[in-house]
Amino acid sequence: MSIDIVQGVQTEPESDEIQEARRQVEICNACRYCEGYCSVFPAITRQRLFAEGDMTQLANLCHNCRGCYYACQYTEPHEFALNLPKALAEVRSDSWERFAWPGGLARRFQESGVALAGALVAGLAVVFALIQTMRPDSGAGFYAYLSHGLMVSLFAPAFLLPLVAVGVSLRRYWRHVGGAPVKLAHLTAAVRDASRLGNLSGGQGQGCNFEEGTRYTNRRRWLHQAVLYGFLLCFASTSSATLMHYLLGWEAPYGVFTPPKLLGVPGGLLLMVGTAGMAWLKTRAAPELGAPRVWGGEMAFVLLLFLVAASGLVLYAATGTAAVPTLLALHLGAVLAFFLLTPYSKMVHGFYRLAALVRDAQQKDSRQAG
Question: Membrane-crossing residues (predicted)?
Fold first, then answer.
């Protein structure tokens, strides 16, 4: 590690991951063969020197499509031994862990994600099963097993508090990368880019090289879009049910042709297809082109999201049967575990990627204005 001296003040030593990523980025900046591949390379060419915050920004701008690795003439056995996808993946995962609040939880999940997620889901499912022994006096559908008031008192803080934790970590990230006050134009550009997942198209619209090496494929992009839009549909389903309950006095259960079901069922199906496909792609992709240390945590996040969607759909299909109490406990345990782990699982990458795209839009504007 090196120790920086700024105006006579000793700062925190840089990590080996930052130094290695900087070495590789400086070589890429001299070569510029991959300039059209994704947003990372145009961002590299806008600078000559790269501070630690610059490296963190580049790492979170990278979507690990791996096209640059297969196009590079300086990978091993060349003496430069470039592996930019791996170098940026390690900086990226380290940034999520360093900025997470409270500290330490993200690293623990990334290294032991499957075990932690499984234990948390199982424990919470048991708790919900025990709570069902004290059934409310009245209620229909799922509320015959758990009262509406109890579910709100449990899930409202479990949803809001993780968002606070994510907000704290994003604030730390934004200060670290030198982010400026956000303008609507920058946010709009970032949301547009994120909705299209343009950085998974290989820069030329051919797709990325994540699981097929030198062959291009759009599978990863399509599966990401299935997860993204499936999640948004499920969120819209829950939001519509909330509005119907509190504004219209229309209480659950809801019929097939109501907004909660018309949005939630397709959303759940998209989530199942997307997460199952992403888990399959991860087993086919070369682990040495990512951050092997966090592979288990990334897989745990994908499997947990799959369980949330699958258990919800199975629960809906089992309505009115004796299986409802068990399935309800499992589903609620999975959902609550997902909420609680959001700030420390790979779910947080969506927030960081959006922030990185906003910062990139700011830097483009500054370059044009200059």
Answer: 113-131, 143-166, 226-250, 262-281, 301-318, 324-344
Asked if 95 and 173 touch (Cβ cutoff 8 Å), the reply is yes
CA distances to 101, 159, 304 from 112, in Å:
18, 23, 13
Give residue 2's pLDDT: 42
Compute how many other C-beta atoms are within 10 angstroms of the C-beta atom of residue 326: 15
Residue 314 has pLDDT above 80, yes or no: yes
Region 17-43: mean pLDDT is 92
How many angstroms separate the Cα of 157 from the Cα of each of 134, 153, 210, 271, 335? 22, 7, 37, 24, 13
pLDDT higher than threshold 80 for residue 203: no
What sign for the dihedral angle of Cα 137, 138, 142, 148? Answer: negative
Residue carrying the six token digits 């990458």:
349
Q: What is the pLDDT of residue 216?
A: 87
d(CA 230, CA 219): 16
- How far apart CA 70 and CA 130 sit, in angstroms, is 53
Position 274 confidence tier, pLDDT thresholds 50, 70, 90: very high
| CA distances from residue 183 to 54, 174, 190, 353, 355 in whole angstroms, order as listed | 20, 14, 11, 17, 12
Model confidence at 294, pLDDT cuts 50, 70, 90, reads very high
Specify whether the CB–CB gap between 38 and 65 falls below 8 A. Answer: yes
User: What pTM value is reported for the model?
Assistant: 0.89
Q: How many CB atoms lie within 10 A of CB 165?
A: 19
| In contact, 203 and 196? CB cutoff 8 Å | no
Q: In this predicted structure, what is the pLDDT of residue 34?
A: 87
Q: According to the model, what pLDDT value does residue 253 have?
A: 83
Token digits of residue 370: 């200059």
DSSP H/E element including 9? strand 9-10
Question: What is the residue extent of each domain of the chain?
Answer: 5-97, 101-363
Task: Report whether 336 contacts 124 (CB < 8 A).
Answer: yes
According to CATH, the topology of domain 101-363 is Fumarate Reductase Cytochrome B subunit (1.20.950)
